[in-house]
User: Fold this.
Amino acid sequence: MGCNFSKKTQDSSELPPPSSESESGSGSHLIPDLTTYEAECRTDPDLRSFDSTVQQSTSRVINTLAVNFGSLTLDSLRIVSESLLETNQEVVTLILKSQEDIWKNKELLSLVEDYFESSLQTLDFCTALGRCLKRVRDTQLIIHLALKHFEEEAETKNYLKTLQDLKDFKAAGNPFSEEFLLLFQSVYRRQETLFRKLQIKKIKLDKKLKSVKGWRKLSNAIFLATFASVLICSVVAAAIAAPPVVTALAAAAAVPLGSMGKWFNSIWKKFENELKGQGEMLNTMQLGTFIAITDLDSIRVLVDKLEIEIEALLQNAIFAIREEDAAVMLAVEEIKKKLSGFVQSIEDLSEHSDKCSRDIRLARKVVPGWNLERNLGKSNLEIFLARFNPGPLLAIYGAGEQGLQSCCSKSMSHYDHANEVS
Assistant:
């Protein structure tokens, strides 16, 4: 229909205004907003339908009042009331089509809470790993002491102290308890679950950003409904004073609603920025979770390697203890060969444990500062890169938002493939 309501209203505004106040230009602020609305209306069938309904309802009110100008009958008031209710109902219908609350995102809040709980659990794991590493270093000291005693007892070939040290090493056993391994599995599963939740939420958010047209439709509908309501009320007021209906329409068209369209546009812009900000925060949490999972993967590999080396040293110690003096020299020589690898594995694991803990703590600082630093004009990605410095990962996938998303999507495919293999 070509947005009849907006066209007719603009035509009526060209009529002589009833007062000098309307000549001051208040109506001129309205025309650009209606022009914007008209452009949206041409491309949106739902908005065209809404426009048609409001236009017919408003026309019915104006025609009724035109017949009975100078007085308001009960029938006229009934038609006015019905028109306002119909207009409001049309807006409600459009709102119900957009059922989500755009200002209070409980799902995102829940994800942030999950992120912090998951990171706390990971920090607990790092603490447990630190205790295991302390026990490993204690066994390392026992081995060094055994080697020292072996050198001292080499001349007499009486290896009592050396054998006692090896027995102490054997008694220390595997520093990585079953409880530690269960904690690791729990932390790893939780991080993976959180990563998938973040990915699903990001997909939903991307779809929501693609549906910005629907939100613009809603804001335009509210704008039109407000304009129609004010127009109807203005006509009613003019009819009470009994001027010609044409003059009443001109007065209604001159109502200063110019700021209304700008207000809705500002609301929409704020919401769009909010969605983009949420996307940035999800990207940050997703990358932080991915880095935590990567750190855990490295730790798992190093723990497995260290356990193998500890087992090899234990076997040599058991051999020396069982065979006593005759086998001590052979066992100690094997221990010497494996010792450097054992020490290096301890250092590697300790370094990765510190890195995991450091990454988690830094990530926990980034997310709470999201709102504050966004208000200072920084994107969440900039905040993350400034504090987190995930250089090696972004060097692989590329810098910037695209690299960040690529990093996250690639990582998810890696996990899917790993799960299929396992």
